[in-house]
Records
---
Amino acid sequence: MRHLLTLADLDTDEIKEILTISSDIKKQHTEGVRPDLLKNRSLALLFEKPSLRTRVSFETAIGQLGGQSLYLGNDVGWGHREPIADFSSVLSQYADFVVCRTFGHEKIEELARYATCPVINGLTNQFHPCQTLADLLTIQEHFETLSGLKVAYLGAVGNVARSLAIGCRKMGISFALATPEEYAIEPDLLEQLKAFPANGELFTTDNPSQAIEGANIVYADVWTSMGQEEESVIRRKALAPFQINASLMERADPKAIFLHCLPAHRGEEVTSDIIDGPQSLIIKQAANRMHAQKGILTWLDRANHSS
Ligand code: CP
Ligand code: NVA
């Protein structure tokens, strides 16, 4: 059974296939065509954290492809009403896909271990692979290529940064990461990233000006992720020099775009003039979540039915 728990689960060609399916279905969507590629399939959403984009884009994606979605709240009792093995085995009898948003990554791994349908990571503390696939779709649409570009991510390493780093490494995009030392990338992930066969460069620094130099894509995420609220004051202090503002943005390529997974905290990780300015593609990026989810669901359906 193929799941999507992290982008490390996919090789470069598989990511390309998902992007191609996503763009093809998006093109049809803009022409008013909604193919029922997942007719009568059911998608369960098991979410332990809030969501606008991930939840709604998956629900609309499966609906537009002819299937249906079920949003599961706390009352299903995941992790406390019965063993996860029973929970996962039973849920798989009803659903053709499960999208899960939770805290520790080991929880989604346990869900997938017992699932007989594909489990998709809708965000854990560690990774956010579906976000990165939509980001790659947005970058590819804008630049008409992926390889040879440079992404600069400034801020704290979190789920979005880790998945973006893996995605860039796998697709030949150079990745420059600027973080304070205390929010830097974990050494084991750094080693894993170095081992991916990629053409792009991988650069880590605590100097935001160096990282952003000549970047084609400048990327930000919130400094305080869901579940870290008690650290917000200390994070704001440590991360202040990493704010993306006009003077830092001037160091990027003049045709650079700004991306943010959203939700954003204007005045923290990015200033309003940048996120609401002409270089920002945040709304197109958010819209692409739905098109990328269609690619992910269709690809997983094919991958699991052809093997
Ligand atoms: N970017 C993202 O995953 O947004 P939500 O938290 O609203 O799903
Ligand atoms: N890093 C953020 C991403 C939200 C989509 C969080 O986990 O809250």
Note: The chain has two domains: 7-128+289-303, 130-285.
---
Amino acid sequence: MSDTTPSSFRPDLLAGQVAFVTGGATGIGKEICRVLGRHGARIAMLSRKEDRLKAAVEELHGEGIAAHHEVGDVREPDAVAAAVRGILARFGRIDILVNNAAGNFPAPMTQISPNGFRSVVAIDLLGTYNVSRAVFYAWLRDHGGNIVNISAPFELKGVALQAHVAAAKAGVDSLTRTCAVEWGPYGIRVNAVAPGSIEGTEGVQRFSDAVANPGPGSPLGITGHGSDIAHAVLFFCSPAARFISGQVIAVDGAATVDQLKLGLGRV
Ligand code: NAP
């Protein structure tokens, strides 16, 4: 997966800013790092597997992007606090936080163990709470900035094989709105991007493997790329979005609002 969408934004849009992306070493998170980095931000990422972090940092360095990694688990407040200290020691500020880290495996309710359910909620929802709170106290409270949570377009749906993820992401959407209200007075905007099926990601591959017919694509007739999500994140972090906060935007080619899914094409 690589950035295939040409940018509509100035290359120096985020010059001087630091973006912290959880789960930034792989998939959509890596594309977010790349796109924010290409627009001038220095990049910090946090996740558990150091080999993947090192490879991603090296890849970004090769593209001329300043990048740094911290190893840790978003479920652990102490590890998160240590990572935030490490990023501040390295870059001196955190202007943008993207809560992207998540767990996922497709399974029916009957086959999700209590531990599996707890684990996904702990990574997606509790992790978003842990990291947002740590960055709020360490930087955003005194300086303002942007938080963008990566959700999923599930909140008002029943989503087969995704009970744990849908519940966790509904919580993330709720947290997005509450943080926007509570932290708006600190000059912090909080929004969320809810990706549709994104080509080339492990999550989509696992889902396609688990179902006989993954269903029609989007009404737009195109598949989503990581860069589509990254550019939505970039928009939320740009001055063009200065009056937008507390919003969850689906980036899915209209798949979520397509109630009948008839795949009619042009009518
Ligand atoms: P991915 O490639 O599986 O990436 C998830 C990242 O999160 C990995 O880098 C992983 O690294 C990290 N992570 C997982 N558990 C962690 C933990 N406990 N602490 C710290 N880091 C952790 O996922 P993706 O498909 O790119 O998805 C990215 C985001 O988009 C997720 O929020 C996902 O829910 C959302 N989304 C994706 C799709 C899609 O089509 N792929 C659709 C809807 C929503 P380690 O394992 O090394 O920790």
Note: The mean pLDDT is 95.
